[in-house]
Write a structure and sequence with these properties.
By secondary structure, the chain is of the alpha/beta class. Helix content is 41%, strand content 14%. A six-stranded parallel sheet has the order 1-2-3-4-5-6. The protein starts with a helix and ends in a 5-residue tail after the last helix.
C-alpha cells in the first residue's frame, strides 16, 4: 500500500521529474554527478523523482550495461541521506514483458520506491486484455503509476474500454498521460471520472506540448 503522506502529496499535485543519467566522457555512470542531480531535485522543491523512466535510461537494463539496480540504489540512498522533513515520492520505471517487469518491481520495492511507472511499450501487438493482466500482476508487487506513452516514440493507442478496465485495477494510484494527443488524453480522464475509483487515481500530465492546457482546462466529466 502507498504510504499516507506520499499519497496525500501525490493527490495534492506536484512535480516529479524524470531523473537524467549522469555519464562520464567514457559513457560510464558518474555516480558523484548522479547523486548531485538527486540533491538538486530535492533542493529545488520537486515533489519526487522518477528513476529509470526516460529514453536516456532504457539501455541501463541491457545485460552488457546492467545499471538498473545500481541507479535505483544510488538515488534511494541519496534521498535517505537527505533526511527530508517532507514526503518525497520515489518512482521507479518498470519496463518489459511480465517476467522482466516483475523483476524490476522487486528491485524497486527492495530499495523503498513508492510506485512503479509501468511502461507498456513492450506489448507491440498483444491484445489489450493481455496488457490488463500484466498490469494486475505488477500491481500485486508495487503500487502502480500508469503511463500512456505517445505512439510516435514506441507507445501505442489504447481504446477507451482499455482505460475503463485499467482504472479499476486495485493499487493503481496515478496515471501519467504523455500521449501528445488531446482525444487520447481525454479517454484517460473520462475513464477515471466515470470509474468506481474516480477519487482514488491522480492524473499527471507528460504532454510536453500541452502542459499548461492540461493543468488549466476544465473538463465536463
Amino acid at each position: 500500500m502507498l504510504k499516507e503522506d506520499v499519497k496525500k502529496l501525490l493527490f495534492a499535485g506536484t512535480v516529479i521529474p524524470a531523473h537524467p543519467l549522469a555519464l562520464t566522457r567514457e559513457l560510464q555512470l558518474d555516480e558523484r554527478k548522479q547523486r548531485g542531480l538527486t540533491r538538486y531535485y530535492m533542493a529545488s522543491g520537486a515533489g519526487g523523482v522518477a528513476i529509470g523512466v526516460h529514453t536516456t535510461q532504457f539501455e541501463i537494463r541491457d545485460p552488457e550495461v546492467n545499471l538498473f539496480e545500481k541507479v535505483l540504489a544510488v538515488a534511494s540512498d541519496e534521498i535517505g541521506r537527505a533526511a527530508l522533513k517532507r514526503p518525497f515520492i520515489k518512482v521507479a520505471g518498470i519496463c518489459g514483458l511480465t517476467e522482466q517487469a516483475l523483476r524490476e518491481a522487486e528491485i524497486a520495492v527492495k530499495y523503498g520506491y513508492d510506485l512503479g511507472l509501468v511502461s507498456m511499450a513492450a506489448f507491440k501487438t498483444q491484445p489489450e486484455s493481455e496488457i490488463i493482466t500484466h498490469v494486475k500482476k505488477i500491481a500485486e508487487a508495487i503500487p502502480v503509476f500508469g503511463f500512456y506513452l505517445q505512439a510516435a516514440i514506441g507507445g501505442r493507442v489504447y481504446s477507451y474500454d482499455f482505460w475503463q478496465q485499467f482504472v479499476e485495477i486495485p493499487n493503481v494510484y496515478a496515471i501519467k498521460v504523455a500521449a501528445f494527443n488531446r482525444y487520447q488524453t481525454l479517454d484517460v480522464v473520462r475513464a477515471v471520472a466515470h470509474s468506481s475509483r474516480s477519487g482514488e487515481i491522480a492524473l499527471y500530465t507528460g504532454n510536453d506540448d500541452n502542459i499548461i492546457a492540461d493543468l488549466l482546462t476544465p473538463l465536463p466529466f
